[in-house]
Amino acid sequence: MNSPVHVSESSVVAASPLSPEARSPGRRRITSRGFLADLARMGGMQMSLAVAGLLRYKVLALRLGSSGLGEYQQLVTAAGTATVVVSFGLAFALNRNIATARDAEHRQQLLATSNTIIWTITGVVYLSCFAALAFDPRLVDRIGVKATPSAIATLVILLIGIPFETLKTNLVSFLMASLDVRGVTSRRSVAVLAATVISTPVVWLFGPVGAAIQSVVVNLGLVAALGIRCKQLGYAPFRLRLDRQCATVLAAFGVAQLFAGFVQQFLDLVVRTHLITQYGASQNGFYQSSLLLAGQVQTILSGVASYALGSLGNERDRAHATASSNLLLRTVLPVATLAFAGIGILAKPLLVLLYSSSFTGAVAFFPFVLAMMFLEAVVWVIDAPLLAHRGVRIWVLVNVTYCSARAVAAIALLPVIGPTGVAIGYFAAMCLYLSMHVYVFTRVLGLTIDRTHFRNIALGLALILGTALPVSGTSPVLLRYLVAISLYLAYFVFIVHDTVGISAARNFVRRLRPEPESAT
After folding, report:
1. How crowded is the C-beta side of 213, counted as CA atoms within 13 Å?
2. Is the Cβ–Cβ distance between 133 and 149 less than 8 Å?
3. First to last CA, the chain
């Protein structure tokens, strides 16, 4: 990769919003060293987020069991549908437009306008949701959860927390689009850990109601921490102002994300309702625990999506866009393969350790959940150039097709295969999703994907499914684990050989060893 310029997060931090440097953001080109450093920071952040998230769900799993966790997560999914409406796709729009903003004042206008839109829509959603629940609380029954006072209170608290969830997401997008990776990672990690430790006793005492309270507390802590970071850079994170030009620009992308996001969230709610009504809330709890555990890796890689879009937002040169995308793929594919395959091999012990022994049934979901998330990481990279070139209509069409296909496949497979039909249906739809993105990337945008990436995608899928499927049986034996671990180590050796060479890796390890003390 011969990208001559890379704007690191340190340069973004150092420039105040009114300085000449801030007014001339320049071209954001990716370099290997810069990307690896930022990915390491995002990985460090996610380690702390993973610890905090798993601690919360560990307490909730012990307190509620798989069935209770499944019911709670269904309420979270229902509130998430309303969250999509309030967010209005603004995180998506901010990510794209902050990256291409002409100066710091323009970025401030975009952020202030998004804040105004959020609180305006929040008022409408609050009025609609709370009026509906007051008129007929039994509406909760329609999503497969019994309308008990506890369930209704949990849903109400989750609804109250919607604007804070949205503000948090927007501030993360704002800072990531500015390539302030260091600021995002440090503030977010400390805030989440602190809020989790403080509020965890509430979860144990009050169950799902306490979990909903904790969710709001964590998001409030994050909003405060990220807001402080924005102020350090000279921005007013909570300013309210409606600029017509900024609102028009944000709406162009926001409406697209709102439509696609609402379709996905609503159809996911429909699929989960079918899963609960046909097989019970415990199966939704199993499915959710597999998503949460595998999602710790996915959240690290999700930063690549913001990073790629922020870096390619001003990129109009096809050669550099191709080179940058291939660099991201060259780094992401082996990391994602090793991480997801490792979770697949250790799925059962991790479920027992991080949840409880009653959650071991979730292991059946892991193979195809992991494979689906692996392919999604690839999509995040090749998705960025399309958005950078303002291909919003194509993006919406591809995403709505994907969301519809996965819902149809999951519902069709549920009565045939059982609960794991959800994971298999989603994986099949993800294969279609990736295929559509590859077509757009190569045929519509005229960019190129190195052939070695297709080989690495196939090897990654083979390793993830080839290791997770054998150990996901009801009574895996030692031989199965030995075979899976052997395949894992063989792939690791292959990656080392393919990237730096065995001899170079050996020399690197040798340099890390302490030199023997000389005899006196």
Report:
1. 15
2. no
3. 49
pLDDT tens track for 314-326 = 555 677 778 878 8
Tens digit of each residue's pLDDT (9 = 90 or more) over 290-333: 888 888 777 667 655 555 555 555 555 677 778 878 887 888 89
| Angstrom distance (rounded) from CA 440 to CA 442 | 6
Amino acid letter at 453? H
Predicted TM-score (pTM) of the model is 0.72
Interval 152-183: pLDDT, tens:
999 999 999 999 999 988 888 787 766 555 55
DSSP 140-151: GGGGTS---HHH
User: Does 271 or 350 have the greater pLDDT score?
Assistant: 271
Consecutive H or E run containing 468: helix 451-471
Find out whether 239 and 108 touch, Cβ atoms under 8 Å: yes
The token pair at 25 is: 């953001």
For residue 19, give Cα distances in angstroms to 11, 16, 180. Answer: 12, 5, 16
> Nearest 5°: CA angle at 454, between 462 and 28?
125
Cβ(345)–Cβ(470) below 8 Å: no
pLDDT, residue 5, reads: 29
The encoded tokens of residue 229 equal 């970071």
Residue 443 is given by DSSP the state: I
Instruction: Give the burial class of 103: count Cβ atoms within 10 A of its Cβ; 0-12 exposed, 13-18 middle, 19 or more buried.
Output: middle
DSSP H/E element including 122: helix 104-135
